[in-house]
TrEMBL record:
Top-rank EC class of the record's enzyme: oxidoreductase
Compartment(s) where it occurs, according to its Swiss-Prot or TrEMBL record: Secreted
Keywords: Carbohydrate metabolism, Cellulose degradation, Copper, Disulfide bond, Hydrolase, Metal-binding, Monooxygenase, Oxidoreductase, Polysaccharide degradation, Secreted, Signal
Taxonomy of the source species: Eukaryota, Fungi, Dikarya, Ascomycota, Pezizomycotina
Biased amino acid composition, Low complexity: 319-333
Organism listed in the record: Pseudoneurospora amorphoporcata
UniProt record, GO biological process: cellulose catabolic process
Main location group: secreted
Region (Disordered): 319-344
A cellular-component GO term for this protein: extracellular region
Pfam family, one: AA9
Domain Auxiliary Activity family 9 catalytic intervals: 22-240
Protein name: lytic cellulose monooxygenase (C4-dehydrogenating)
Amino acid sequence: MPSFTSKSLLTILAGAASVVAHGHVTNIVINGDSYQGYEINSFPYMANPPIVVGWTASNTDNGFVAPDAFSSADIICHRNSANAKGHAVVKAGDNISIQWDTWPESHHGPVIDYLANCGTAGCETLDKTALEFFKIDEVGLIDGSAAPGKWGSDQLIENGNSWLVQIPSNIAPGFYVLRHEIIALHSAGQANGAQNYPQCFNIQVTGTGTDKPAGVKGTALYTPNDAGILFNIYQSLTSYPVPGPALIKGAVNVAQARSAVARTATALTGLAAAPAATAAPATTTSVAAAPAVATTSAAVAVPTTTLVPSTTKAVTAAPTTTTAAPAATKPAKGGCRGKSQKRRAARRAAAAAAAAAAREAALARRHARDVAFLD
């Protein structure tokens, strides 16, 4: 019979499962090569996790960064983030498909992508607070005729929980951090209610571009009172001011489509520039028609989404599945050491789940008050 401790743990985890469903990025796909991201469900519990292109972070609860932490380093690449030790190679003008494991339909909001130049030494050891980000992609409100509207996050869900972003063809070669983010607005009608979910990846851009756009430090991207952060989605809407700096010259919002995985690629380290890939089963499917992407204005500091269909062409091939993340190292079977490792992992999981449940419960109460007020 399970002990009282085991029963309590199962109760906590079961209760938290209904609220901890935000998701995280599992991998990115570049021209058929799938690069592993930072897997929060297993890597934190490994003695020697694999070298990947995704930045390390402590969001094991799939949690978020709240507006009251916008001035802290957590907003840069998520909570307690640390540099990825590997990178992927992409040619300027090519697309990167960013695959999430899941995303809740209720968490409507914009999808935004940035780049930050790491300099000639690469992105593996630099100080993240020195990174200066410029915006290369954004999709906010797509259709606001019926609350809460259709958003970039809804388009991501329709596209198999994946997002396609193009590296502008005019960007100069070099090492960059790609910062991908969803901002959930379901509780943003009141102070500190928005939820930011930043995810970072190291890439090396090749090509013949020459532009080196100026950027903004991560801790200066947003403020808690920005028009697109403190925003009520539970009303009829005609526009939405996507937060952050304006899109750079040459930025393109591509029509969303899935990318086929042909190979499992190994993250490169140091200043290596030639990707190594191993064969993996192909996972191609027919591509559904890509939904219209809202274009945005880059002429002002805070762009406003206009409901105009995108004229950029869609990428054709599309997968339904991506390469599986590396399996977590199993603790030693039997003995005190193995049992101790299991107990520590269980306590960490329980603590993370309980914290997430508490945060979501508080937000649910706020949301209920907002809806009651609107009614």
